[in-house]
């Protein structure tokens, strides 16, 4: 099926390179408008196909030799033998290690779910297959110089689009019961709105059916950062309220199609991250006149309204669905016991988790410190909108990888608040990974490519308690992503050295122990999703930073379990009630 849409094509002020074959009419200049930099941008209305979009904005893409859906290859039984134990040899010889036994006061309830997660652009590959339209990430990886440190793209990634049956068979074989993946919006609606691509729907039909066939619960995220390029160029993506009806319509298509097969749904992944990505590099997408510091909050505003609309629509289609927002952030520890650091911590909660959790769980509106800032430029939510937004997350689905020490800016909070050009304005708090003695890190570092992340699992019980007490989620808390990049993993050359990943293994063991402590103290944690099902495109770090509990040989597309996969599953084998 050929999709065509009328599209306003920017002819000036852009880095577009038209390919030989695309049709760019030289006439019909429909409008001339002023860009934010003051230059005149000429705009025309032309009919563009999906292929034209690719040719104009992305250019040629790579493909892999396996390019039709394949049946799973048998999983060698040797790859299901657990690794040598890391902590407690069963028969200590030489160095004496005290035997550790099961802690009898810990347990995961029977209905606690545990699984692995991935996201469309990071794993699928097959970017032009079967009618998929480009997303902003195709442009960022292909066209924007140095956006991805290693110049990698998602063109092939883990070839999951064709090898998903094997991927599901593998996780089932090791005992993982849940698989969380995101849909590619621009596969389903190549232009983000308008015509629906039935081939893409059929692909996801089979992905979901394969999960069910293997007894793996599918969990679906609608949006994991891959905004359809067409919408980004048409109106600036999340910066425009026009995204609300488009996202809602997309939600209608997918809820209608899969509500009887998929129970758990996440609307948007980590808006703190993708809203703070704005401004996307200038000259590649539609320009905006919204000031840079304000852009994240316009984006967040439209995310909240889109999420709320999708939530109500989904519940209208099937009231038994579990639909949640997916937020991210770490535990916030005051660096010192000063009053200003305590205030900085509160600002950090309000500008991170609170930005989306306060409206969706508590009031329908922003938390006080954030509201004070955004009400200077955003149209406040009406009472009706607040009513739409509040109580629209069934689970507190939080991607909680790490913790941070928080402190007031060097200049003090008040000086920051009265200086709109301050680096830390408007949030006006600072963070560090080093204790106040200036010597020890908060926990072992991850790969240098993810400097935001240390293993800081000691604070997990306090964090979970804080979430429950503060936002009181109706159906409990899920750690919807957690994981760590094994330091320097990409420098290891032998397969055997890659597969033993002690930092990641201890991360999962200690993190899950921390959840067990929280559970034993009455915190309602309902599930966990390890990030990630396997190594994948780590956004601007390309394939150089590895988060997988499986290694993928990107030349052959073979998969291998790492030791951490066994550690993860083993904690449930030991502690889950049968
Ligand atoms: C994102 C993933 C990302 C992971 C590791 C999460 O915040 O949802 O897409 O790969 O962090 O950086």
The radius of gyration over CA amounts to 24 Å
Strand content: 15-25%
- Structure classification: alpha/beta
Based on the structure, what is the oligomeric state of the protein chains? Answer: single chain
How many strands appear in the DSSP assignment? 16
Q: Can you tell me the overall shape? A: globular
As a percent range, the share of helical residues equals: 25-40%
Bound ligands, each once: beta-D-glucopyranose
Write down the CATH class: Alpha Beta
CATH architecture: Alpha-Beta Barrel
- Under CATH, the homologous superfamily reads Glycosidases
How many structural domains does the protein architecture include? 1
The rounded distance between the terminal residues' Cα atoms is 49 Å
Main β-sheet: number of strands, strand sense, barrel status?
Answer: 8 strands, parallel, barrel
The stretches of 5 or more residues where confidence is low (pLDDT under 50) are 7-38
Strand order of the largest sheet: 4-5-6-7-8-10-13-14
Number of helices: 19
The average pLDDT score comes to: 92
CATH topology: TIM Barrel
Task: Explain what this protein looks like in three dimensions.
The chain is an alpha/beta fold and 578 residues long. The chain has a single domain (50-575), classed as Alpha-Beta Barrel (TIM Barrel), CATH 3.20.20. Helices cover 34% and strands 16% of the residues. The protein is built from 19 helices and 16 strands. Strands 4-5-6-7-8-10-13-14 form an 8-stranded parallel beta barrel, surrounded by 6 helices. A hairpin with a 5-residue loop joins β2 and β3 (40-49). The longest helix is centred in the middle third of the chain and has 23 residues, at 295-317. It is globular, with a radius of gyration of 24 Å. The chain starts with a strand and ends with a helix. The relative contact order is 0.12. Mean pLDDT is 92; it is low at 7-38. Bound molecules: beta-D-glucopyranose (BGC). Beta-D-glucopyranose (BGC) binds next to loops. Keywords: Glycosidase, Hydrolase, Signal. Pfam families: Glyco_hydro_1. One of its GO terms (biological process) is carbohydrate metabolic process.
